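so my prof wants the structure for this chain in the tokens format not the other one, which i didnt know existed until like an hour ago. anyway here's the sequence
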Amino acid sequence: MFTSKILIAQIRKPHGLTGAFKVSPYTNPPESFKLYRNFFLNERSYSAEYIKPLPLRKLFILKLQNIDSAEEALRFNEAGLYVSRQDITLIKNKQPNLAKPLILINDILNFKVFASAEQLEDVLKISSNVYVLSLIRLLLLLHSQRNLEAALSALGMPSNKKNLDILQETQNSYLSLPCFQEKTTLIPFGEIIAYYSAGSDGLVEVELFQFPLAEQLAMQDLQKSKSNKNMQPAFHKEAKFFVPCHREYLADIQTKKSFVRLDNLQKILL
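here's what i got, hopefully its the right format
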């Protein structure tokens, strides 16, 4: 999802009486925020009068032209501050240690996320969410097992017509994803839906695929676990998890394809 304006900071609150703001930058390092002079706020463009760092807080004081009172500044509390993609490109090109091409977090929103079977098996070892566990079990089987009766047996489900039809529908839905045309051995398991700042790094939020069969398996597992007092599993149908990534300016991914590898997220830059 390529956009011409990129979120680069968030306004926290007014500072003083002249219309300045306290701003939390998303740049890495934070000091590179000072390199920008032109911003977009609520779709309107503004030029910076000055930008001053607040020591030890990773915040900046930003004064924009034509916002000249605390009352005016108050209207923009918690608003997003944007810059043009062209400005980011120009500033990035002044830093020779950064490679090309320019790829931003915004560019990979709605991308499918792939992982190896080993990575998904690692998730099985640590998750307590029965939907996550059931979905990953299902995905691993759909990726490796084309025999539906054998897959049902592995899932612990009776091999009757109803279950075979449900599994066939799930398999058709999963294998119809455009990403399978790439002939990859990796397994798609979700979609990038958001990005969050987290200190000097960030978090990419991945929403897992939703399949009725995975929910059915999860409910079965949940019922079984109720008889085991040592187990206290969680169940969230809207299952999501967060992948850490670095906030810089480029990513080692192929942007012509609508997917990104899980381990590539470690290299994504804002």
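also thought this was worth mentioning. The first strand starts at residue 5 and ends at 15.
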